[in-house]
Amino acid sequence: MKRITHRRVAVRMLLASAITLLLIVVLDLSFPPPLPESSGGATLVVARDGRPLRAFAGAGGVWRHPVQIEQVSPRYIEALIGYEDRRFRWHPGVDPIALLRAAAQALWNGRVISGGSTLTMQVARILEPHSRTPLGKVRQALRALQLERRLSKDEILALYLNYAPFGGPIEGVEAASRAYLGKPSDQLSHAEAALLAVLPQAPSRLRPDRHAQRAQAARDKVLARLADHGVWPASVIDEARDEPVLARQLASPMLAPLLAERLRNEQRGTGLVQSTIDADLQAQIETRVEAWAQRMPPRTSIAVLVVENASMQALAYVGSARFGDAESNGHVDMVRAFRSPGSTLKPFLYGLALEQGLVHSESLLIDAPQDFDGYRPGNFDQRFRGPVSVSEALQASLNVPAVALLQATGPERFAARLAHAGLPLRLPRGARPNLTMVLGGTEARLEDLVSAFAALQRGGLAASVEFHPGKPIEERRLLSEGAAWIVREMLANAPRPGEAGGRFERDSRVTLAFKTGTSYGFRDAWAVGAAPAATIGVWVGRPDGTPLPGQYGAISALPLLLALVDGLPTALRGTPSARPATVEAREICWPLGLAADETAPEHCHRRLEAWLLDRTLPPTLQPAGEIGPSLLAIRVDPASGLRLSPGCREEAAGDLRQIARWPVLAQPWLAPQERRAMQPPALAPGCDENLELLASLRIEGVDEGSVLAPAPPRREPPRLRLRANGTALRVQWLMNGQLVGETQGAARLDLQLDAAGDQRLVALDSAGRHATVGFRVLP
């Protein structure tokens, strides 16, 4: 009978236990702990070395930067567990020993001396705040048991590391470490680890930025307990006590703010965003940009991008001069904005012309008024220079030679090459690639321009700028290695402002292949330069597109670019790459453009040292609408040296002679001896002139060698009434290379002579005929 009774009792106990367990499971499932689903949206964007660039608060304005246990200093974990919960790894969520100790201390002293809460119980309270009543404590303990059943110890510890309160809007040890100490939590000293371990006990009362003495006293209490428990050696404790509490004032980091915003938007939901930015270089450049902006007109903004050529990683990114400034639209990121690039595309046009075999580095081009199917470009300074080399035209950013080359290479091909290499151009709606592109009649982004210029130092290979470390780059061919090298050399030998020579006058400086640009109406000023190890782009203007009169690339953007380049650290200066095997030096002759050793001495009017690509030696490119320089064959009487025409009886017996002719458009700028060298001898008696060898245009209104004086009695500047005789076409008038007027046929031009000194006046009609006269104006 007793045996049956014992069995019934055992069954009842088992049944009660099962019911209790079932009830616990049901309650646990019905009332699960409120585990967080995400970090709350807070984001920290950091530099390549982990230093913060900008922090973005999450939901409710909370600053929380998610971190894993292995990303936190072991010193902090030791201090936290050693001070708060030494048996954390063993108890089931509630520590009976700690609770009994806390109760005994409270009864003996009449007040609470120490809490009995475990780390798990603290996590439960963080996740679900409750009152400090006995009922609240019971609820906290039950939640702790739930957490222990559902999560591992490391998962519970990770919740504490990320959600513990540290004062104000700061939650989690990583955010606290960066906010108060200015460093990530994996770099904490022993003293700093002890300080952060105690802050969550009373985060408002112990904030080190407001109550440093209280914080230090609480930290020393932690150190004393760690010493008592032997967590750290006595020598470490003593050294930590000597370290003062030095917390900085809470301030959100603000380096590269527009890039940080861009990266945060690209990686929504990511708590920590790593960037390629060099924090030291970024701070240095932001300081220079801000100082430069103070010298500019009101509402001016500035954008700067620095890229490491080898990796194509962005090292510095300034999207606006004054972030947040409403007057200058400081919230607009001008690194990404499409703007007119001015003349910054010219280097790639010249590179394409080199590849196509149209020119070499010293080919003869003509900077003179030309008509390209109704498009008549001029130069920025309104002057023309006549015969120029390819390198001179590129360095001086002359417009007419560039348009002539674009017409020869083809606008569609040029635009397609740029787009393929990652430099897409944005044309006006409905427009197709045209001749205006190379002068700024399109739009491009600073980011893409920097990528393209970097290709000049990367063997012609372009790649998109990278902002995330470790991401592989995708290279695209912009120019051949040889063409890129020649273009780079031409740009690198351009003189800096105030210098007469090019690169070889400044061997101590960084070798820089740079180009400036100015958009129509002074709306955009550019300067982009490729050094051996880094490429820098600068844009200056107003984001709203309003003009900045008188501000252009050479004075608004280039000085800043040069200052930034000369301030680059040694590691980013680099050494220029060697000349490729596809490039060779050769002496050539003008006007024919052929090799000097293959040109007769009488045909070599000027000698130049040129870079040839793939041994290609193209003759001089013909200007639009005229027959270019060539060898003119004539017959000459051997006895008298006079020219024989086809109508002369002696023509067949004459000696054959060849004359090297310059392009007609170049002739007004030639030296006297060069003009004489291309003139054929006079006709022999009885021979008829039937060759149009000389210009038939004549200037009426001033004679060669005239001396003009101001008119008395008020000494007003002299005035000329000019007319071009011998043409019915449009005539352009140039004074000392500067366009001063246009007439049609024999129409008159009234010209006031404001400048004293020697003057050279040229009349040039649309057929290429010209007349020139020199005179002097007295002061």
Secondary-structure-based class equals: alpha+beta
Portion in helices: 25-40%
**Termini distance?**
142 Å
Low-confidence residue ranges: 502-508, 691-695
Q: What's the total count of β strands?
A: 29
Give short descriptive properties of this protein.
about 775 residues, 29 strands, five-stranded antiparallel sheet, 20 helices, alpha+beta, elongated, single chain, five-stranded mixed sheet
Give a verbal description of the structure:
The protein is an alpha+beta fold and 779 residues long. 31% of the residues lie in helices and 19% in strands. The strands form ten sheets. A five-stranded antiparallel beta sheet has the order 7-6-16-15-14, with helices on both faces. Strands 23-29-28-25-26 form a five-stranded mixed beta sheet, with no helix packed on it. The chain has a three-stranded mixed beta sheet with strand order 2-1-5, with helices on one face. Strand 15 (524-530) and strand 16 (534-541) form a beta hairpin. Helix 13 (346-355) packs across helix 15. The chain is elongated.
